[in-house]
């Protein structure tokens, strides 16, 4: 069973975080939700309160098949500034794990730290200047380039999450979850 890390931070986009967690768990993946803060309690951008399974420090030495980042502000900035998370992303990138980000996170996190250099990527409109070294594809809801998967924002959260699932468990698994969700 594929293991997925879903970090969460205060200010993440509610729809994106919940959709990622829900779709991947429906698909039978082993999803670990980890707060990057000192508390498991996180308050999303629109005041949804979410409790993480663990703190990021609790799983810092583990290797996952994917690390999936929701967007939202200032959540993406908290991710960008979390040295432990960036170190984990770098370690997973070397292992060719799937690194996925939606909304502001492709630019604010991946762009700032060089994960999209010489890659095609997308992000929330207005953040494209942060996709340093990437070819910006503004009209694509989801963009995959090597092990980097990016998406635009809340409205694309479902297709983004299903794409993560499809990459980890196969098209049939993703299609089965999509059918159950009436997608």
Automatic annotation (TrEMBL):
Q: Which residues form the DJ-1/PfpI domain?
A: 3-165
One cellular component (GO) term of this entry: cytoplasm
Alphabetized Gene3D superfamilies for the sequence: 3.40.50.880
Annotated Pfam families: DJ-1_PfpI
Its BP terms in the Gene Ontology are: glyoxal metabolic process
Q: Keywords, A to Z?
A: Repeat
Q: Which InterPro entries match?
A: Class_I_gatase-like, DJ-1, DJ-1/PfpI, Prot/Nucl_acid_deglycase
- Does the record's keyword annotation contain Repeat? yes
Presence of the UniProt keyword Acyltransferase in the record: no
PANTHER family noted in UniProt = PARKINSON DISEASE PROTEIN 7 HOMOLOG, PROTEIN/NUCLEIC ACID DEGLYCASE DJ-1-RELATED
Protein name in the entry = 4-methyl-5(B-hydroxyethyl)-thiazole monophosphate biosynthesis
